[in-house]
Amino acid sequence: MAYPVLSTYRLQLRGSQSGEAFTFADAEKLLDYLNGLGVSHLYLSPILTASPSSTHGYDVTDPTTVSGELGGGDGLARLSEAAKARGLGLVVDIVPNHVGVETPENNAWWWDVLRHGRDSEFASFFDIDWDLDPDGRIVLPVLGSDDDVAGLAVDRDVLRLGDLAFPIAPGTDAGAGAQVHDRQHYRLVGWRNGACGYRRFFSITSLAGLRQEDPAVFERTHAEVARWFAEGLVDGVRIDHPDGLTDPAGYLQMLRRLLGPQAWIVIEKILAVGEPLDLSLPIGGTTGYDVLREVGGVFIDPAGAEALTAMVDSAGFEYAAVPDMLRELKIRTTTETLASELARVCRTIRAESGAGHPQLADAVAALLTNIGVYRCDYPVLSQILGVAIGHTAAADPGLAAPLAVVATALANPGGESAARLQQLCGAMTAKSVEDCYFYRDPRLVSLNEVGGEPQLFGVSAAEFHRSAAVRARLWPQTMTTLSTHDTKRGEDVRARIGVLSQVPSLWAQLVDRWEAHTPSPDPLTGLFLWQNIFGVWPADGVVSTELRRRLHDYTEKAIREAAAKTSWNDPDTGFERAVHGWLDAVLDGPVAAELTELVTQLEPHAHNDALGQKLLSLTVPGIPDVYQGTELWEDSLVDPDNRRPVDYAERLTELDRLAHPKIRVVAAALHARRDRPDTFLHGGYLPVLATGSAAEHVVAFLRGNDVLVAVTRWTVRLRERGWADTVLALPDGTWTDRLTGARLHGSVHAEDLFGSLPIALLEKAHD
Question: Is the pLDDT score of 376 beyond 70?
Answer without folding.
Answer: yes
